[in-house]
Structure formats: structure tokens, C-alpha cells
Structure prediction request, 209 residues.
Amino acid sequence: MMTLRLGDTAPDFTVETTEGKITFHEWLGDSWAFFFSHPADFTPVCTTEMGRTAQLSGEFSKRNTKPLGLSTDTVEEHNKWIFDVNDTQNTTLNFPIVADADHAIAQLYDMIHPGESETAAVRSVFIIDPKKKIRLTMTYPMSVGRNFDEILRVIDALQLGDAKRIATPADWRPGGDVIIPPSISDEEAKDIFPQGWNEIRPYLRTTKV
Prediction:
């Protein structure tokens, strides 16, 4: 088990999935990853989350982001579960689900929290960029389903920040004002943000991008 922090390189692994054997870094390529874990197959909250991920496949694709699920069961069990996911959530699940019956990947990514369960993974989220760096982690308890609007919002914010050298304020949504980081001087900002900005405080400058 290891503690993974923002900015760390996401550990690589080779594993069987519902889409065949993958080596994580090779599979990811030049894409972003939404890597998320589940306590077990055939559980109610997990079924809705797997279905929602499948329903949002177009949104993830627009963001050059590949979903990768994990549950501490076998490929055989996963494939049976996918049938239920598709049937109950009215979707077609076509992203890989990692088979992790021996908990090797769950332990590698610190997804087993003994205070919750000794054998089942909590609802972990890792957003990983094309350089294989961990950019966001979130951990939900087993009884609480993830907010997929927030997952997409964070991916949007990270990608915009990388492209435009900005930060995003509380409750930011695409199209909203963004923040010029204090590390960028006014002089440098004139070149980067020719559209200008609103200076609320010297350390708080907002603009449009």
C-alpha cells in the first residue's frame, strides 16, 4: 500500500479487464483518465454509477478522458454485472472494468480502507493527466454515489487551467470568470490576457477566457 498525492506519477500496472488485458500507462496514451473504484459487483449504488459513466461516454470523449472502473471481483463476474447495468440503467457500457479479486490494484492505489471494509474498495476517484500525473483524488463512502457533474467540472477546470494558465473560483462552471494566479505579474498578464481583467484586490484578478 502507498499514499498517493497530487502530482505523483500514477502507478502503472498490467491487469485483466472486461476489454482484455491492459497495461495502464500504455492504455492511457495521450488521454486523461477517470479511474474509479467500487466495493463490489451487483451492488445498487455501484450499478447506478457504472450506468451513469456509460451514459456520459460522449462527455468523457469530448474531454479526451477514458473511464476505467475497478471492482474487487473477476472478469466473469464483471461481464454478468454489465448485463444488469445495461438493462437497469438503459445504457451500453463500453469502457473497461479492472478485475481485482486479489485486491492488488486496490492496495496499490490505497482503495481499501479497513474502517469501512477489510476486503471491499471504497469509492475512490483519480483524475490522471496524459503525463500520467495524479491531478485530483476524491474518496466517497460506500453508501454515497458520486456526483458526476462535479467530476466533469473538475476535468474542465484542470484542462482549462493547463491550457490558459488560470485558476478557477468557487462553484466555477465553463464560461464563467476565471482567476489570474498571483504568480503572474500584471506586466506578464498583459501579454497572456490581452482582453484585460477586473482587479478586485491585487491578489484577486478575474477575467474571461
